[in-house]
Structures are given as structure tokens and as C-alpha cells.
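Consider the following assembly input.
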Amino acid sequence: MTTVALYLRSREVPAGVLCAVPAMVAVAWLGSGPAESRHAVTAAALAVALGVAVLGHGLGGPDSTLDATAAIRWAPRRALHLAAILVVAAAVVAIVTTAPVAVVLRDAAGFTGLAALAAALFGRRLAWTLPVVTGCVSAGIPAVPEPFALYLLTWAGQPPDSPVALTTALIFAVAGAAMYVTRGPARPAPL
Amino acid sequence: MSGILGIELRRSGALLAGTATAVLGVAGLYLLALTGQTGLWDQQWHLLAVFQRIMLVVLWPLALAAGAWQAGRDRRSRIEELLGTTPAPGWRRLRPSSLATALALAAGYLLVLAAGAPKVATAAGHPGSGWWAVVAVGVLALVAAGFLGLGLGRLLPYAYTPAVLGAGSLAGLLAAIEVTKLDDATVPGPALLLPFFTSTISEFQEVAGSVSTGQAWWLGGLALGGLVLYLATNRLVRLLAVVPPALGLALAAPMLTVTAFPVDTAAVAEVCTTDGGPRVCVTAAHSRKLAVLVAPAREGLRLLAKLPDAPASVHEAAPGRAHPQPASEAWLDSDNLSQAADPAELTARILAGAGTPLCARNEESAYLDVLRARAVAAAWLYGSHPVPGPAYAAAEQAQRDTMWKTLVALPAGEQERRVAAVRAAGLTCGDQAAALGIGAGR
Amino acid sequence: MATTVEAVGLRVRTGRHVAVDGVDLSLSTGVHGLLGPNGAGKTTLIRALATVLRPHDGRLRLLGQPMDGRPDLRAVRRALGYLPQEFGYYPRFTVTEFVEYMAWLKEVPVTERRRAVRNALERVGLADRAGSRMKALSGGMLRRAGIAQAIVNEPELLLLDEPTVGLDPQQRLDFRALLRDLGERSCVIVSTHLVEDVAAACTSVVLADAGRIVLHGTPDDIAAAGSPADAGDSPIERGYSALIERHRAAPAVAR
């Protein structure tokens, strides 16, 4: 138990949770109008994106090079960490929002993958970039079915029964998780 | 400082923010090309300017996040102690990075304009005027986002600030849209204070000059407030950052109560043929379509000559064109210009309602009856039924066929009188279905 | 000769801990080595001299300016060069850009800036890496880039906190030569653990322990304090350990 606590503290997770949970609740609540309205879905997507972006900061420690020399096997721990982010973000937003739970779960999976991808590519300090950019694009543009490119871009705001949006989210989730679990957070901190 | 500005432009996150703005903006414009919807922005310079402002809904929060990220650089680099021992005051040290952020964001926004420009230049009917003010306000809005991000990022120097500002501000703005939607849509009022437009305009509309001025005051105040917050070296100055936005809001509020998107008089001005034949006119906004219209329009006039008191010229009727229509003119609704597939169909569309535009609204109960009456009148003038154009569902077509047969069964003089009545009703926006006197329930 | 640093009864706090506890010091042109074990208050003293920390008590004059009340920090900082112990930098800047940026902040006149930057880089032997990104530099090169930014404004008061960390033996020899050169016109204060650097390059040595000055003299004075019985491989090392040991024993007796 203590090693888990030490691990979480080394990644500043407690502070991240303290920031992410109120932020998610606030954003999801802002959109909790009439049930299943478009606005509720986009607000839920944004809330998940924001929560995952903040929690994504914990995907790396202050010194990734030092972490990389550790004797323990990182891969399962990283996978567990990603799963925890997904569950926390999805659970908090699902409680507050009026949007369908399926949408929240799908978006949480997709955004967690994106955060993992950003952490693996740019390091933990920039883990927020991909979820926030994708979240803003997805929520700012009306979720239209045409053209296909826009349909893909607005995946997070699409209705729960959209197979394309689900596939997109799963691709992000699998690609991000695979990259992060195998390679870990990026070593040098840019900027 | 110029050398330092160059360094900041090359090495800070500003360049990335500007590039992201340009890439997302250009993608936003040209993704619509996939479905042939570039008409949303390429018909007029004003439309492009407004469409760019609509895209700010995504770009604005991202610029905010980029600014906040930039503001955290000294802290992330652990260079604050060293910088603290230099003689230059804090505001002087931060000035180049704020300027670089503003320049990069402005350049990114203008690049999007430049990317859309070639398409607009080939499609727009007239150069228009005043749209550059809409662009300038857009640049100001984006710079305000960058400055606000810088200021808030310095005020709240935490690792989570950029993410929370980016996604959080968009959530707040979307909620604000929901709230302002409840108001009357024709008087946007508070919605104009948002850093982006929430709806597009038609090619015959423009953004009122006073709206642009008011928005410039408000967004300029926001930008200045953000800049003060960023450059402030003590708590008192930080508090003063509230003053510019408040002042801007006070100056802007009275200017935003007018009609936001009035008719663009330059766009609805007529452009006519000057070759001595029967006059054919279109609006300046559609001046490029005049050449296509001339032949079908003159054919339409020839066919309309069957009627007494026949029109001698064809005019495009932009929405809201003032009635009554002179008897000497045939009017054609604007949307027919882009919807007609070939010259014969265009002629048939001119003949619909015997050279009068559609007055009935979609939601009126008699709407379908009016459409049928107009089509039958067109067929009578054209000399055959049905006229060239899109096919209808079988039931609808059968109904029209019946009406056609009823009309041609009448004595010749009566036929002509009925069609002339349809035209007369159209001139004053009267009931064209009743004027024909054939069809459902009559 | 004007006194560049003048401290009387100087006390500086870091948090609740008084890290510099009653220091009397008077330094002028020359190279002054600041020696002492870990926790002696060397870094705190240097940070106070660099105007990062405000003195908590006592009097401090830098370049003739009193540092209490509302001091004219700007004038002092214009003539100040500082290499912090934890040297932060912008990783994406090139070496030239970083030093030029610091020169701008130190208000080096714009007409002389380019020349001053090139000059500083040549003096630390980084001219051939001038176009490299800071993040691509090795530890020793980073340290030298840090020295370059510190000397770019030709400071009258140069404060170097552990400048020789990461330098290889050849670079340390070059650095000693640079120090002697700088010491002819400025007051250079070098904090270090490496006793032989001090012996080779310094005109005076300030030996500190537990926030107090143990001895202020020449390297020879330190060497003279040692006897063959003391710990160390060279005369000055033996002198250093003898003085620290004696100082630690003395206050214990006084108490």
C-alpha cells in the first residue's frame, strides 16, 4: 500500500485528482441541461477531456530517465495507471452529466489514449495537449454526420450508437496505450 | 529589442501556437470542400471573414491554453532566480514574449484568410467593403486570448493551468451560447460579446460597423487586461488589470444593441446587361452568374410575352426585396441561380408564378398549393407539362397533372386570364393558389 | 581601490534557518575563493550578494550601494554577473541566443551586444558550439554557457556558485586562467568544494563554516595553518581540514 502511495505522490497524482475532479464536475454540470441534448454530450466530452488532460500529468515522474533505470517492470504499472485514469474520469463525469453513459465511457477511453500518446511523445508536461486540442475541436464543431472527415473529427460529440466514433475512440485508446505502456513517458522535457 | 523578439519568435511556443491556428483554420475551411459546402464562406469576402470568426470557437480556447503554457516557461526552466538578478524590470523582460505571441497568432489567423482568399476571389461577385474590419476584430479576439492566457498563466503558475484554461474556457463559452440562445435571435445583444460569432450570414448581409467597433472595444479591453496581468510586477497593478475590460465593456455595450447583420447594400445593388437586348439584372453578390442567366432569362421574357402587360426585364430578387413588384419586371428568387441545373430549367424557374418570386412561407398551410399553382402557370407559359426540373414523388406529380389537365381544359381566353391572375397576385405578394383557382379544395 | 563587497554583521535567513550568521567581509578586485563544507552557508551568502535574498540583519554594501531600505538594485544588478548553483536555462535557445538574451536583460548596449556575446563565448571556449541548442549541451558545456552569461556584461562583481562542476581537467585549467584574467578588473567570488582550484587561482580565500567566516586570508595562510598530522593530500587541504576542525571545537568550548 505504501509503495502505491509513494508512486502516486512521486507523480503528483493527489494534486491532479484534487484539480481534475472539481474541474470535471464543473464542466459536466455546465452542460447538464435537458437530458441527451447535444450540449450535454459536448459538455460531457469536454469534461472528460479536461479531467484526462489534468490526470495525464501524472503519467510521468519528475525524472523519466531515472524511472527508466528502475528494476521493476513498468509495463503493467503503466497499464494500470491508464486504466485508473479512465475509470476515475468516466465515473466522475457519468455521475454528474445527463449524457448517455456509453458516450462518457467511449470518450474517456479515447481521451485517455490521447493523453498516453502525448505523454509518450512529448513528456508529462505536455500530456494535456492532445486531449485538450482534440476535445476543443470535437466540442467546438457541431457533431455533423457529413463530411466524413468532420464526422471523424467530432467523434467525441457523436451519439452513442455511432460505430465510427466508437472505432475512432478505440483506435486512440489502443494506439496511445500501446505506445505509452511499451515506451513510457518521453525522456527530455521540451521547452 | 528586435533581436530578442526574433529569438522569442523562433524559440518560444508562440510559433507553434500560430502554426496550429493556421493549420486548424485552413483545415476548417477546406474540410467543407469534401462535401461541396465551401459556399458557406467563398461566396463573398464578408462571408469568409465571418466564417473565420465562427471558427474562433475552437481557436480561441486553444490560444488561451497556448498563452498559459508560454507564461509558465520561466518556471519550468527553473531560470527565475537567475532572471531575478538582472537589472531589466520584469515587464521589460516579458514584453518580447507577449509580442511574439500576438504576432504569431495574428499571422496564423491571417494565413487562414490568405488560404481562403483565392477561392473567394474566383467566386465572390463583388469585392465588398468593411469585411476587413471583421477580420481585424478576429485578429484582436485571438490576440486577446493569447494575452489573457499569458496573464492567467502567470497569475496561476501551475502545471494544470493551460489544460484547465483551454477546455474550461470552451465549456464556459458553450454554456454561454446556450444561455444567449434563449434570447431573441434577431437581436443577438450579449451573444456579440462572445469572442466568436455563433451563426453565419447570407451573401447579402454584412456585419454592422458599430458592432465591429463595439467588439473591438471589448476585445481590446480584454487583450489589454491580459497584457497588464502578464506584465504586472506587483499586486496593485494586477488588480488594475480589471479596468481595461470593464472600460471596454462599458464602451461596447451601447454599440451592440443595433441590428448586427444588416443588408449589405453593395451586395444587393443590381448589375445589368448593357448589350441593348432586354435587360437582365442580378445582384452584385451574384454578378458572376449574370452571363449564365442572360439567355434563359430572355427566353423566359419571350414566353411571358403571351400575357397581357408582359414584363420587359428580368431581375434577381434578393430576400427582402421591397414589394410591390412593377408589372414591367419579372423577378427570380436568388437561390434559383445556384439550384438550376441547365438553361431550360432556369427558364422554367423564371416562369414559375409567371415571373414572380415565391412569397408564401414554408410553414403556411397553403404553401404546397402555392407551389403547385406556380408550377402549373410555368408549364402553361412554357408550353409543355411538366417543365424541365427535378422530378417529384408520384402522388405529388399526379396532383399536378390533374391541375394541368383542368387548366388546359378551360377555354383559351380563360387559361390566359387565370395565368395573368397568378402573375398579378405574385406582384403584390397575394395568394397565387387562389388566383389560379384550380386544385385542392377549390 | 574601492571595496566591492562590504558586509558587517550580515545575517541571512533561508526560511526559519539562519544560514549566514554574522558575517563581516570586505572584498575588492581579485579572485576570492569561498570554501567550506556542505551547509556552511556558501550558497546563501552568494545569493544574498546576488540580490536574490534580502539580508535579515546587519549591513551590506554592494558596489558602494547600501542594500537596506529601498536600495537601487537596478544599478547594482547592471554590474553583476551570477551563475547560480542550480543553473536554469531555456532548452530550445541556442547558446548564442541564450547569452544574447541574458546580455539584453543585463542592459548591455545594443550596439555592443553581439560583440560582447561572441567575446564571452570565446572566453569560455564555447565559440564552436555557439549555434547548438542548450538542451544538446553536455554538463560541462552547460556550466561554461552559464559562466558565459555571467561575464557577458563584464561585471564588476562576479558570483560563481560551483562553476567547476562537470568540467574536465583541461577545462578546469582553462577556467583557472580565465578566473585570473577576470580577477584583474572585477571582484570575482567563487564558491567551491575543490580546494586545489582555490589554491591555483585565488588571490584570497574566505573559509566559512556553519554560517560564519572562519578565516579570510591568502591561500598560503590556509596552507600554513595545517600540519602533516591533519587530513589531506596537499598543504592547502591539510590547512583547510585543520581550520574547520579547530573552528568546530572552539564554539563548543565557548558554550
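Chain A is about 70% helix and 0% strand. Ask yourself how this observation constrains the way the partners meet.
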